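Table 4 source record.
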Amino acid sequence: MASLSRVSLVHNSNIPLHRWRRTGIVEPPRALLAAQKPLCYWPQFLSSKVVISFEVSSNARYFGSWVPRATVEVVDDHIVVEEEDKAKEKSGILRVGVICGGPSAERGISLNSARSVLDHIQGDDLHVSCYYVDSNLNAYAISSAQVYSNTPSDFDFKLESLAQGFQSLADFAKHLSSSVDIVFPVIHGRFGEDGGIQELLEKHNIPFVGTRSNECRKAFDKFDASLELNRKGFVTVPSFLVKGSQSDKSDLSAWFARNQLDPNLGKVVVKPARAGSSIGVTVAYGIADSLKKANDIISEGIDDRVLVEIFLEGGREFTAIVLDVGSGFDCHPIVFLPTEVELQFQGSIDVQEKDAIFNYRRKYLPTQQVAYHTPPRFPVDVIENIREGASLLFRGFGLHDFARIDGWFFPSSVTMTTPDETKFGRTEFGTIVFTDINLISGMEQTSFLFQQASKVGFSHSNILRTIIRRACSRFPHLASYNSTSHLLPRRSKSSQLNESFPRRKVFVIFGGETSERQVSLMSGTNVWLNLQAFDDLDVTPCLLAPHNGYSTSKDRVKKENNMSSRSVWSLPYSLVLRHTTEEVLAACIEADEPDRAVLTSSLRNRVMDELREGLKKHDWFTGFDIDDEIPLILSVDQWIKLAKEVQATVFIAGIGEDGTLQFLLEAEGVPYTGPGAMASSICMDKVATSLALKHLGNMGVHTINKELWRKEDLLNKSVPEIWQDLTTKLLCETLCVKPARDGCSTGVARLCCLDDLAVYVEALEECLLRIPSNTLSKAHGMIEMPNPPPELLIFEPFIETDEIIVSSKSVNETARGLMWEGRSRWVEITVGVIGKRGSMHSLSPSLTVKESGDILSLEEKFQGGTGINLTPPPVSIMSNEALTRCKQNIELIANTLQLEGFSRIDAFVNVDSGEVLIIEVNTVPGMTPSTVLIHQALAEQPPMYPHRFFRALLDLASDRCT
C-alpha cells in the first residue's frame, strides 16, 4: 500500500459537513498538511467527542486522487461559511448546490441522481455542496458522504444526528444565496418538477439549472399539458380528469361513450396528473374499475388529480433527451437520438402482466422486463419527426437547459381516434403522440440522459457540465465563470501525466450467466465509472458473454470448466450504459450488423453536427469526449493473453464466484481483485463453506445445518413427503430455501408451511422469473427467481431474529426511532472484509431493517428506495464489547477461508456475546451504487469514498502480485 501522511482531527459536534475537491496534484502541498482545517466524520448514533484521522496519499501512483477541502463547519447548530468558501467567489471556482430528496415516492431515484451528479461534476473549477429535502419539505445541509447513504429511509432516520437542519425553507434559501453560485435541483416529482423549488429560488434571486416555476407547473400537470399540446396542434390521447372527491360517474360514463369504450371492459390507463412518470400508473377496465383505481391514488396521497386515458394498443414507447445549446434566454433546443422502450415478457405470463406498463420497477431495477433501443427501430422519417416535435414542444412550453420528453409511436396499422389529419404527429408511417414532459430527468448512472448523451459524444461529466454552463449563461453575473480563463479541465493534469507516466491498464469484467448477472452489470458499471476518476488508470469495461445463449443451469455447470472457450466483449462507452446484460450483448451484436450500424452512425453524425454548430459559439464547450467505437469480441483465452500483454489488472465485478475465472488468470500470472481460486470455489458452495468453518464452534463461530436437494427430486416427489423429510431432519417448523451455488439475492424464500413449499416447487417447475409479493403465507416482497432455475437447492432452518421496528417517535437518545424487544438476542448483519491473506480487516457490520417480510428483497439489497441500514448497529442493540468480538469472529472466518482483497460475509450475531452464526460468504459481492458496503467503507476512519474504496481493492490486487 502507499505511504500515507496522517493528520489527526478532533470532532465535537453532532453534524460534520465535509466537501471534496478534485485535484490533479501528485503529492499534497505541505501547506495543505500544515493548515488543513478539521474535516469531520460523523460517528453513528453518537454525539460524544471522537478523535479520528484522515489519510492523504503521498504516493505518486494515485494521480487524480481526491483531496479534502473543509468548507463548512457546524458551530452551535448553525452553518458557518469559512473564509475559504468566500475566497472561491474570487478564484473563479463555480459553487454548485445539488438539492435532492423531496416528497415524491421517487426520492430514492433522486438520491441516485445526486450521487451521479456529485461523482461527475466535481473538479478544480467547480465545487459541489449537497442538500436534502425530506418528505415534509424540511431542508438540510448534508455532507457528501451522506449522499452515498443508500435510501430515503436512511436519510430520514438519521437526519437529526447527521445533518444541519434549517428552521424554514426561507432560511434554507438565505443560506443558498450566500453559499452557492447556482443550484442544480435533482428532485424528481413534486417540489422538484412542479415549480416548487424553482419558485423558492426565484423569490430569493438564486440562479438554478432548469425551467422556471411557472413553466414547470404548466408542463408537469399531465392533464394541463395535454390540453396545451392539443392547443399547439399536437396529436393527443383522449383523457378524463378525476379531481379529489368530486369524481362524477356520469361524466366519466359520458367520456367512455364518447370514445367508444365499453363501460364494463373498456381498457384505460389511470395515473396521477402531478407525479413522476413512474409512480401510481396502472391499467383499469371499465368505469367502476377506473374510479376505484383513481380513488386509490387519491387516498394514498399520491395526487388529488388523476388522469384516465385511453389505452392505445399496438403502440411503441419512446423517450428523447433535449439539450438547449442557446445563449442567455435565446432557446436553441437540440434533440438527441431517441430511445425506444420495449417491454418484454418471459416465462409464464397472466393477463395482468401483459397489461403492465413502463412502471417504476421496470424503469429502475435490473430486470429482464424491458429493453432499450437507441436509436429506435422506427423509420428514419419518424425518428426525425420525433426530434422535430420534441424541439417544438421544448420551445412552446418555455423550457430551459434540458428535459426528457416521452411519447408513443403508433404504426399506420393502428387506428387512432383523432380525426384531425393536420395535427403534428401524423406521418405516412403512423402517428406520434407526446405524453409526458420530464423537467428533471433521472440522472442515475445508466439513465436515458447518459445513454443518449454518450451516443452523441458526451461523457457523464461532459453532458452535466454542459447543462450547468448553459444555465450559467442566463445569469449575467455568472458569465465570468464561463470564460476560458476560468475553465479548467476536469482532469487538469491528465495530459501532463500521460506524457510522463504510462497509464495503468485495468479491465473491469462483469456479466456471465448466473441469476445475478444484472447485479454484476450494475456493479461493473459503478466500478468502471468510479475508477475513471484516476488519471493514471486506463479502464476498459468488459462483458463476459453467455455460452451460446443463456443455457440451463445443468448445462452451465458442465460449461463452467470450459470457460476458456467463452467470449468477452471489450465495450465502448455507450454500450455499457444498459440495464441488463442481455441488452448489452444485443447492442454488441447489433453494432456488427452493417445496415443498423450505418443507420446509427448516420443519425449520430447528424445530431453531432447540429450540436457542434450550436455549441461553437460557447467558449466553455471544449468538445466531445466519447468516440464512436465498435465493440471487440475475444475468446476468454485471447482476452487473458491480452491482459497479460498490456500488464492489466482485472477487476472482477459480480462474476467468478466459483473460482474458474481466477484459476485461468492465475495460470497466466494476471493480477485480479478478490480471493484466490480455491477460496472462491469453497465459498461458492454453501455446504463446503459450512464444513470449512465447522471446527470453529468453540471460538464463537457457528454454522447452520443444511439439507441439499436436486431440483429433479423436488419435482418428482410429493410435496408432503418432502416437507416431512426436511422438517424432521432439520428439527424445525420453518425453512429457508436458497440456490446452492448462486448468489444471495435470487431464489431465497422463507417457507412456513407445506403450501409455501408447493408454491416454490411450482415456481421452479414453471421456470417463473419471480414470485409475486405476499404469495407465501407470511408477508414478503417480490422474490426474483434464478433464471434458469438452479439444479441444486439448500434447505436450512429459518433463524428467528428479533424484529426491529422504525418509529417516528424517539425511543431514547442513542437509538432514535428504533423499537426492539430483543427476545432472541440474535440479529442479522452483513459485513465487508478487506486486506491481505491472513490479515483481513473487518469493516463495521450493518444491521438492516427490512421493510417487508423476512428476506431482503432485490430493491433492499441493490436499489435506492427501501430499507434502513444501521452501520454500525446502535449501542442500544449491540454493545461496543459485543461488536468488537463480532468483528474478531468475522476476521477469524475470513482468515480461515483464506480470503484476500475483499469479500462480504452475511451472518447472524448474538448481541450479547458477539458469537456469529454464518449464513454465507460472497467473494465477489455486489458493488452497486446503493450497496450497504459503501456505507461501511464510509464508516471507516478516515472515510473511504467509493472511488477510493475501489482503488484500494485494485491496489491490493496489484500488491499481492509484486
